[in-house]
Write a structure and sequence with these properties.
2 domains, alpha/beta, four-stranded antiparallel beta sheet, 29% strand, binds ligand LMY7XDAE, Alpha-Beta Plaits
C-alpha cells in the first residue's frame, strides 16, 4: 500500500475512439500524477472498461468536487458508468462464517498482518463455535441461528447490524446458509462467496461428495459475487488441483481447503483494491 492519498476511477461505457485520451488528459490537466492505468475493450459487446489511479497531492480540483467534474466532463459525454474511490477511505468489511474456520483464519491472518487497506470490525455467524477465534483478534462476533422459520427475521437483524457497523462489503467465509434477496439487494456485487467447487460444476452444499461420486480428476474452488441465484453470481477467481482414484472425500476436502483459502483471499484483495468491474453477470479483474 504505497501512496495513501490517491483516487481510483473505475469506468465502463460503450467503446469509441478517444476515451482513454479524454480521461488521462482530464487527470493530467488537473495536475494529477497517474500511478496505475489498465483498460480492456470487449469487442463482442463493444464495451470499454478502465481503471485509473492517480496521486491527489497536487490535484487542482477539491476532493469533494471531483465526482461532479467527472460526471460533467466525461461521463455525460461518453455515457460512462463510473465509480470513484479514495485510498484514505478504507472500506469496512464484515465476515459471515458457520463452523469451518480455515477461510476465517486466513482472512484474519492477512488483515492482522496489514496486507489490506481495509477495516474489519464485525463477524457474523449462525453458530457460536468460532467466537473464541474472533476474540483472539479482538473483533465483535454476533450469532444469529438460522432455520427456515426464522431466516427472514434473523436476516433483518443481520442487515441492521451491518448498517450499524457501516459495513461496505461482506465476505462469506464458508457460510453455509443461502442468503435471501433482502440481504443481497442491500449489497449488490458487494457480497463475496467462496464456493468449494470449480463452478459451474457441482453447485450446492456438498460439491466434494458429488465430485468424488463422479470420479473427477480435478477439483477446484470459485470466488464469486453473490446473487439470488445460488452459486451463479459473477465469478471473480478460480483455481484447481489434480486428484486421482486414490483420493477419498476426506482427502479432497483437505486439498480443497487450501484452494478455498487462497481463492477467497485473492478475491477479497482485488475487491479492496478496486480492481473488479462487473458486467452482465461476468467480471473484468484488473492485474
Ligand atoms: N443467495 C446466495 N446465498 C449464498 C450463496 C449464493 O451463491 N447465493 N452461496 C452460499 C455458499 N454455498 C456454496 O458456496 C452454499 C451454502 C449453503 C447451501 C445450502 O443449501 N444450505 C442449506 C442449509 C445447510 C445447513 O443448514 O447446513 C440452506 O440454506 O437451506 C448451498 C450453498 C452462501 N449463501
Amino acid at each position: 500500500m504505497a501512496n495513501d492519498n490517491t483516487a481510483v476511477l473505475l469506468i465502463h461505457c460503450p467503446d469509441r475512439p478517444g476515451i482513454l485520451a479524454a480521461v488521462t488528459d482530464f487527470i493530467n490537466q488537473q495536475k494529477g500524477n497517474i500511478l496505475y492505468l489498465d483498460q480492456y475493450v470487449n469487442r463482442e459487446d463493444h464495451v470499454f472498461f478502465m481503471r485509473v489511479e492517480w496521486a491527489l497531492d497536487n490535484f487542482i480540483i477539491p476532493r469533494d468536487e471531483i465526482e461532479d467534474y467527472i460526471d460533467t466532463l466525461l461521463a455525460k459525454r461518453y455515457s460512462m458508468n463510473f465509480r470513484l474511490y479514495f485510498s484514505d477511505s478504507k472500506p469496512r468489511m464484515a465476515i459471515f462464517v458457520s463452523k469451518m474456520s480455515h477461510c476465517l483464519f486466513d482472512l484474519l491472518g492477512r488483515y492482522h498482518a496489514g496486507e489490506w487497506n481495509v477495516e474489519l470490525p464485525l463477524i457474523i455467524s449462525n453458530h457460536p463455535d468460532l467466537k473464541p477465534v474472533a476474540d483472539q483478534f479482538g473483533i465483535d462476533y454476533f450469532v444469529f441461528p438460522i432455520n427456515k422459520d426464522n431466516k427472514a427475521e434473523q436476516e433483518a437483524k443481520e442487515l441492521e447490524l451491518l448498517k450499524q457497523y457501516n459495513i461496505n462489503f461482506v465476505v462469506l467465509a464458508r457460510y453455509m446458509q443461502v442468503l435471501s434477496p433482502q440481504l443481497i439487494d442491500s449489497y449488490p456485487n458487494r457480497i463475496i462467496n467462496i464456493h468449494h467447487s470449480f463452478l459451474p460444476a457441482f453447485a450446492g452444499a456438498k460439491p466434494y461428495h458429488a465430485a468424488h461420486e463422479r470420479g473427477v480428476k480435478i477439483i477446484g474452488a470459485t470466488s464469486h459475487y453473490v446473487t439470488s441465484d445460488l452459486d451463479a453470481g459473477p465469478i471473480i477467481g478460480q483455481d484447481v488441483v489434480r486428484v486421482t482414484h486414490k483420493d477419498t472425500i476426506e482427502s479432497m476436502v483437505r486439498k480443497g481447503r487450501d484452494l478455498e483459502k487462497i481463492v477467497l483471499s485473492r478475491a477479497v484483495e482485488k475487491h479492496i483494491d478496486r480492481k473488479i468491474l462487473t458486467y452482465q453477470n461476468r467480471t473484468v479483474v484488473f492485474d
